[in-house]
Amino acid sequence: MPTGTRPAAKEDKRRQYHCARMVEFRRKKKQEREELHKELRRLQRAMKQQEEFVRNEAASRQFRDSSTMVLLREVIVEKEALLTQDIALRKEIDRHEPIQTLVQEEPQCYSEYQSQSDKLMLSPSVDQVGWQVHVPNGEQSFYVHPFSCKEFGAFPNPFDPEYTADSSSYSYAGTYLGWKVYRVPSHEKPLSVHVRFTKRIQCSVDTAFKAWWDKEAELFPILVTPIDWEYRQRHKVTTQVLQEFDRDSHMMFHNIPGQTHFRYMFLGRRAEWKLLDGRRKMGYSMLMVEPKVTKRAEEHRDNVKCL
């Protein structure tokens, strides 16, 4: 055998071995995702069965006796536990999504198995009446109701062309914490203003996207802070994902501790575009929304302010 063919044969063998490892890697990750989704569906079915059982039990009696009320309380507690597991499963599923980036870096293996890498989307469950949101460190919890798909669609999307149609004349306002700030005042609504923050970073879009997935809770800015609040207290801020509409849209919650705890809900979005020159562009938005919580239960708390 000519000596020139040995390196080529060795390289082919190494490539085949690497491809086989990537195929096995993707197969295991896909199996893990399917198992997580299967467990999530099982928990949701169990929760609905428990709720239906209690409704039927209560409807069969003209008056609710003490045993029914005890059973109802037990089901509510179990429902909250299932919802907590539901959120944990959603986060675990999100953690596996960046594997798609690794797969795309292996085009020879990926082309054959692309159909097996379809993303599974978790839609908001509109049949849930709500759940209790627990805040760590012993802070007071609150009850929140989920937004329906119709309500989600009614929220303004900062990435829609119609949203920024009247904001083409952004003017440079200065810099803030290393970000360039552009603003457009609204003449129709004097108290409303469009602000855009931009910053150029020395990394690829894929690297930035992976960093966002890994440290999403830490990267979201704090929109409102109490008086005398300092950034070194950032680690005390609680960030929770309350609802997932699609892979890039989440209803989230911030709790900023202080003498008066500040709380607000916001709709976080991610988007990616490809410019005419071939470059890729990423964008993130935060839209504060009116929380669907039991406000009467919050108003009497002097040390909690819901925005």
UniProtKB/TrEMBL annotation:
It comes from the Eukaryota. Keywords: Coiled coil. It comes from Phytophthora kernoviae. The keyword Coiled coil applies. This is BZIP domain-containing protein. Residues 22-53 form a coiled coil.
